[in-house]
Amino acid sequence: MDTTITPLTFPGKEPGSIFSDMQATHIGIRTSDYEGLIKWYMEKLEFRLIRKWRAGDLKLAFLAPANDNSCWIEVISQDITGADAGQEARAFASGYHHFCMNVKNVDNTLSELARRGVATLRAPFDVPVIGKRCGFIADPFGNVIELTADMSPASA
């Protein structure tokens, strides 16, 4: 095994790329224990709670590391009640769900990706509670990628 320490080097940036505006923003993690996962990140890793909100039967939250606002975790949990709650909760498997890239315009980015043969998993939609327009795609192996853009104040 090679034990030589070699710092990472990055190829030059591509400012002329149509996707040069993409920036990582968050990683989505599903859980059946919404409050427990939030508490764990806050107590054990000293993450900060940015926001909690609901969307239908989903409970969501954004958590940021102690000293970093550039990339955070989105906690996603399904609020399931009724006779089939145990079975449905198991079907809503905990773990990785998606990573998110912020772009200037979700609709334009999805149009360019469609031109390149990338299917849209979920058409653009607005989430005023977090001020974002969102859309989803997947890579060839099914890994989900969310694209977001800031909503203009006029559209909120």
Shape call:
globular
CATH C-level name of the largest domain: Alpha Beta
Q: What's the total count of β strands?
A: 8
Share in β-strands: 35-45%
Which radius of gyration do the C-alpha atoms yield? 18 Å
User: Per CATH, which architecture of the largest domain?
Assistant: Roll
Query: Which structural class best describes the helix and strand composition?
Result: alpha+beta
**Uncertain segments of ≥5 residues (pLDDT<50)?**
none
User: How many distinct helices?
Assistant: 3
What do we call the CATH homologous superfamily of the largest domain?
2,3-Dihydroxybiphenyl 1,2-Dioxygenase, domain 1
SSE pattern, N- to C-terminal: EHEEEHEHEEE
Determine the mean pLDDT: 90
Task: Tell me the major beta sheet.
Answer: 8 strands, mixed
Instruction: Give me the side-by-side strand order of the main sheet.
Output: 2-3-4-1-5-8-7-6
Total number of distinct structural domains = 2
Ends apart, CA distance between termini: 55 Å
Helix content: 10-25%
The name CATH uses for the topology of the largest domain is 2,3-Dihydroxybiphenyl 1,2-Dioxygenase, domain 1
